[in-house]
Specification:
- 4 copies of one chain form a homotetramer.
- In chain A, α5 crosses α6, α9 packs across α10 and α9 packs antiparallel against α16.
- Chain A folds into 2 domains: about 230 residues, 4-Layer Sandwich (Glutamine Phosphoribosylpyrophosphate, subunit 1, domain 1); about 190 residues, Rossmann fold (3-Layer(aba) Sandwich), CATH 3.40.50.
- Chain A is globular, with a radius of gyration of 23 Å.
- In chain A, the strands form 6 sheets. Chain A has a 7-stranded antiparallel β-sheet with strand order 3-2-4-1-10-9-11. In chain A, strands 5-6-7-8-12-13 form a 6-stranded antiparallel β-sheet.
- By secondary structure, the first copy, chain A, is of the alpha+beta class.
- The first copy, chain A, is built from 17 helices and 23 strands.
- The interface between A and B is large, with 68 and 68 residues.
- Chains A, B, C, D: Catalyzes the formation of phosphoribosylamine from phosphoribosylpyrophosphate (PRPP) and glutamine.
- Chains A, B, C, D: Keywords: Glutamine amidotransferase, Glycosyltransferase, Magnesium, Metal-binding, Purine biosynthesis, Transferase.
- Chains A, B, C, D: This is Amidophosphoribosyltransferase.
- Chains A, B, C, D: In the C-terminal section; belongs to the purine/pyrimidine phosphoribosyltransferase family.
- Chains A, B, C, D: Pathway: Purine metabolism; IMP biosynthesis via de novo pathway; N(1)-(5-phospho-D-ribosyl)glycinamide from 5-phospho-alpha-D-ribose 1-diphosphate: step 1/2.
Chain lengths: ~475, ~475, ~475, ~475
């Protein structure tokens, strides 16, 4: 299911290049492959023989770079770029990244994917010491920290600053003479290093972006690492040793592109295994398996394979449903006008449908899809969710900071089933999820963060601790 | 595969409403479901108590109606709309439909899907008689004919004019007091009549648009029919009795949306049967079946089911690949930068792949995809096309008027296989196609037009006869 | 005073070039000098080795040609252009000129300044004979007439058509091999022929446009003339001998640029003489003379010189008052917020002001200016209009087709004075106007059309005769 | 002459309101009257019950507020606004003012007219102390100073900061509970306080903006003053006692609108007196006096009155010459194509012309105008400049920081006359200028800054001292 149907949003994608004369173009194509990670703003900063210049704007990458000139102006052999999902209250142009800071004697550009848990307290401290913040982003906090440290080199100041910030983060930092990539101590967000045939280095949020530019995968950036890339090659350093792998499980469930591989696990195959595991945990009596396009198709395929029930294309997604300024009025909605999904009556009429969705957030879309299938003639609709119930907020970079809108945090399983209107409802277990992803780590939960499901956060909550609210109902399943 | 990858284009979609106070809004949502039939222009004309006003523009529907005001201005209980694919030489705003003609004492709006085969000779005759044409479209020819007939009523003049034009056409015509739908004597293009719960009538190029507005399907418009819809209901008339069903088979193969049903046959299921038939005609030794997203997924599913070879998601289409103004430079293309499709290495590496595509036009995309799969590690790629070789031009509304770019018109099967780089190449037979679609008509080819495959055109070619060129090679398969 | 303050509008300006390799650029700069004749649309059609292509749009010339590319695309050695004032009901893009007609075997572009008096009856006749009109302009009528004549050459058909149309018109017509300029039998609208140093010919609505491109003035086009310009030079023909000079006197009073010369009379100097004559007809006891910027400054200068009262800059016009989308609300207007004109308090405080305006249309602006001056401290304001009272509609190309909004058609002089709030009010006499312009013609009114002042129209009114309404009050002065 | 012809630019206009429910609308209309002070950016920040929100953009005010919604969104009873001229290297959107600073617990908006002479050294110091600057403007320097002071109240920190900055400045500062207006110790830039009929207070760069909103003038802000306006009325304080009046004389000569009054002197009348004084200092044998439109018309009027030579409209300025994207090519310029000014041949032919211009910067425009008049037939052209030769850079807010482009800094009077092509050339003396403006102050030069003419700067040059270059030639006159 797309983020347009769900209120569940990844907060960004980053991409960087060092050592190719068409660095900005490569960054453009790399970001294009990461567009699913953020559609509300994009930008690229290029290093033109030591001088940084950038272009950024609101909207899709293709809207920001709507004239070839804009990209062509960004010459130079290094660049970083960013695609952004804008959280409430930070949707202005001033928050679009990379942020480019011009000092009298040097420049720094930063691009960030993630969310800091101590940003507010750091910002308050910095303001009391005279700092002026221009935008609302966590990114600016890091720049202020770097600027105020006394250490002689930029790298030392950067490492000291990375130790001060908490939460989930994957940073790309471009200066006149180097590109830095830094990951938080838990590795919440994915970040991969690759190399082009001509020797240039590439860093990207997902490996699909490496593939897009034909870069060879070298390694995942590891928790607590900072990699410096410059004309001498790349050098990996640990800025902290207090690390513990806790990759965001939602990357596997929903966010990442199926062709990406994270810590050795291909996302599409992980989803297929989630579907297979779901079939084992929750067999249903159905005639056909239908997946919600596009993100649930892998899981639906897995469910079909494991259950032996044939997979059918019972739902069609309108390929042109992005960017609609006009929505049906209340009267037309009641009359049944729909824009994004259609049920294929010829496929589902008279059938018992096993409907596979990757996750369940507010439940409104599920209710809508179940009705769609029933109006198209489905005799039964069994909703099977290929991940556990989302019951806790995320503070590391996914926009579920509030549990009031999470259906599973507020209703019991029978209440949810009734509200959705499905004939049955079931979720994958946390253990099943962990097995399906199969991350091969000795860290807790095999190296996954499953806090949204069970509230077991791998770090202290810092600024968020005071307002944290547990789910209103006990465990759902 | 999308039209962005293929140079194969449908020439339009039409939608009309009579009797609903939100006629223009319904038309907007109806057209939205038909957007795949034309992305280069859109327009809506509404009947506001007898006065027609319109809004139209270049680009996607959402680009034309980029402010709710533009749609809100189109009040009234009847409307027609159009989405357009612009052929070379007719891409200007003046060709965007519906065309609205303002006479001193009346108004007429026309929307057209199809292509006339005697438009040039009619236009030449009309100009010699003093007519001035504003645009290049066939639609304007019909208006001039209507205007110059002497019969007392508009309907009589319209019927007489319909008898003069030849080729493939589905017209919607809106006047101050009626909505007319007219189909050519062969029914080349689909056109369906439906009814809303409140009694309003709806006409659309495909049934998926009826579903989108929750209209109940009443009937397909039949070859040679003209339907008049007004405040007294609808009335079906034959403007000619010399009819013979020849539905465009490419509608089933590629153009129509999978959830549409044409003359009783669901498109998705027809495609599944094409895939099944293809499996019977051309079994291959493969580990996995992979379909080219999105249009070949139904056929791939059918091939997998019939062959027993598992279906896998080996190719991913970037959902944001529409509307890109920036393409990789030659150097980057050679370096392997790609924007629209990615192969999932984890799925295809080391595998023998049965690659299913719905059709083959120029062959360049097939070559590209085969290389993509091989670079991702596929050990063998067998390309299986779920339709026969395209060898002849179409004159009834599909943009294949020139055979020079049709691979199968110029190369033998072994030459094609070599050029594409596949380990084997096979096409569905014409007989297999006809069986798979299974249209249940007693007309030749069971009521399908298969002229692009075998050159057997169901009508004379008129203006096109003089320049017609047969394929350069003998039958491919 | 600008047309933004008055509801009095000229209906267009035309410009054409034959024989210069930068014909479209020259047309651009020529039209720029004619922008005051129409601000709501502009266009240029160029002849590129026999093929005509154009670019046009809504708004100012600089808005239509907002990218150098648009102009650069119009290569070729001949071009015609048009700036347009859009009358009610004809403001759409389809009415922007030049109109370019594409026939199967030839092309014609037309640009028109003026208004036909028999357009409606011609259009009705043509439609009954099967013609389809695309837009509302009179220009299209001429094209239909040309197209339907049987004469063998284009020029013969054009001349026959010119004899059929009535009213005021100045046409430029571009074909693949010639540029035609044609003027109505009364010469209502100005049109001048000039020559560039390189021998190329130029035709323009006003001589100021010839000056702008450094063209030497050759001659005014005379009533009933058609001039053909081609690679052999220019050739003047009379298409009719029934002519009588009746130049629009409003061109001298208000429309034309002060640096233009019409039939030998410089506009600025004519206005100065109007001011001098006004001083002789209506001396007032005043301390200073103030003109309404910008169009009344010449007349004010003349009044000051003849009366001996010093001219002072008592009113300032905001140079940025064009194109404002935001107007003061009712409350702010009442509070005194004003955008376009300011009174210079230091100049007018305590002074008796002789306020000179070129003409008086609805009177609302005069009332506004009188109040402005009094609020700035003027002790008396005597409003002196340098032209006679506007009491009759114009049918030859000025937008005063309705007398309901003409103050002098509905109120007596004392009523007008009271409503405006001036201490006295006086107008120039018709005889004084004729003397001041001093056109040196033996035709009635020395060759001027003064019908707006006295109702003595130099031609029959044709289509307008039926609805013609005389002024409601008897002669004003 | 407009700034489009001269390379001489004022650097901004400011406007503020406290106490009117339509504060942003009033600010819009006030800025509209100040648009001549800056055309490259505009913005408004409104105080909506203590919360500040703003809208800003590049271009004219009417381009920034191109939809009424944008202004309507700025509700609240206080607002400040800014129109900006962008100096080289600071043309980005991030420099458009008012700058709005969002702190965790408060907000501040600043708008600035002027130029600081110690901005670079302050910025360097601040950065070394960890400050991060977002844009290049001097305005941000003030904010950093305020933020880093330790004093308990905002007002105390503001006053302390004002004492640290040097140069010319007129600041408006808006917080949640007050509007502050502050002027530099020399009063280089004008700033006036007024009051609306409803009691609301208004501050503006020029009194013409007070007139536009019907505000009554209260007083000029005096050098070294800070005025605090809040719900208790206004309160004037001196933040320093080391003051000395040195109003920018170019405000009187060229920048300010003729209807503005600065320190009791009306600008139009001052210019008339400059023209009169010029006639006394430099009588010429001429037939007519012609002023360069629009800014020299007052001086030309004065020259005519004092000399007895009649004033004539010999030059016409195209009213539509703003915002042209297309300029004549080299070939067309040589061919005589001109866009902005036209000479009225009928007026100047055969005449000896006394041409009055307000000032002379690079001389290229003067050369152009002299040629224009001669080509139109003028027998002699005597160029008389109603101000002294510009020979020194300005560091207080006018964009003449470089003397290389100042004609009078590089050539002697005879050289200038030759280069311009005039028959004679003369300038007003510095003493004559001071007499004509007649500012009635006991400060040096009667309270005017005349440093651009004689190099006698009223303050130290600080950061500019090191690179200061004197004129290359000795005194011109």
């Amino acid at each position: 299911m797309t983020s347009e149907l769900k209120s569940l949003n990844e907060e960004c994608g980053v991409f960087g290049v060092w050592g190719d004369s068409q660095a900005a173009e490569l960054t453009y194509f790399g970001l294009h492959a990461l567009q699913h990670r953020g559609q509300e703003g994009a930008g690229i900063v290029a290093n033109q023989q030591g001088h940084l210049t950038g272009e950024l704007g609101l909207g899709l990458l293709t809207e920001v770079f709507d004239q070839p000139d804009k990209l062509a102006a960004l010459t130079g052999a290094a660049a970083i770029g960013h695609v952004r999902y804008a959280t409430a209250g930070s949707s202005g142009i001033e928050n679009i990244q990379p942020l480019l800071f011009n000092f009298t004697d040097h420049q720094v550009a930063l691009a960030h994917n993630g969310n800091l848990t101590n940003a507010v307290s750091l910002r308050t401290e910095l303001e009391q010491a005279g700092a002026i913040f221009h935008a609302n982003s966590d990114t600016e906090v890091l720049m202020h920290l770097i600027q105020r440290h006394a250490a002689p080199t930029f790298k030392q100041r950067l490492k000291a600053s990375l130790r001060q910030i908490k939460g989930g983060f994957a940073y790309l930092i471009l200066t006149s003479d180097a590109l830095y990539a830094a990951l938080d101590p838990n590795g919440f967000r994915p970040l991969a290093l690759g190399q082009l045939p001509n020797g240039a280095y590439v860093v990207a949020s997902e490996t699909c972006a490496l593939d897009t530019v034909s870069a060879k995968f070298i390694r995942d950036v590891q928790p607590g690492e900072m990699i410096q890339i410059d004309d001498n090659g790349y050098q990996v350093e640990k800025y902290t040793t207090e690390t513990q792998l806790s990759v965001c499980s939602m990357e596997f469930i929903y966010f990442a592109r199926p062709d990406s591989t994270i810590y050795g696990v291909n996302v599409h195959q992980a989803r297929e295994r989630m579907g297979q595991q779901l079939a084992r945990e929750h067999p249903v009596d159905a005639d056909i398996v239908v997946g919600v396009p596009n993100s649930s198709l892998s899981a639906a395929n897995g469910y079909a394979a494991a259950s032996g029930i044939p997979y059918e294309m019972g739902l069609i997604k309108n390929q042109y449903s992005q960017r609609t300024f006009i929505q049906p009025t209340q009267r037309l909605r009641e009359q049944g006008v729909r824009m994004k999904l259609s049920a294929v009556s010829a496929v589902v009429a008279g059938k018992k449908v096993a409907l596979i969705d990757d996750s369940l957030v507010r439940g409104t879309t599920s209710n809508y899809i179940v009705r769609l299938l029933k109006e198209a003639g489905a005799s039964e609709v069994h909703l099977l969710i290929a991940s556990p119930p989302l019951r806790y907020p995320c503070f590391y970079g996914i926009d579920i900071e509030n549990t009031r809108e999470l259906m599973a945090a507020n209703l019991t399983l029978p209440q949810m089933k009734t509200k959705i209107g499905a004939d049955s409802l079931a979720f994958l277990s946390v253990a099943g999820l962990i097995d399906a992803i199969d991350l091969q780590s000795t860290a807790p939960y095999s190296g996954l963060c499953v806090a949204y499901f069970n509230g077991d956060y791998p770090t202290p909550l810092y600024d968020y601790a005071a307002t944290f609210e547990p789910p209103r109902v006990l465990a759902t399943t």
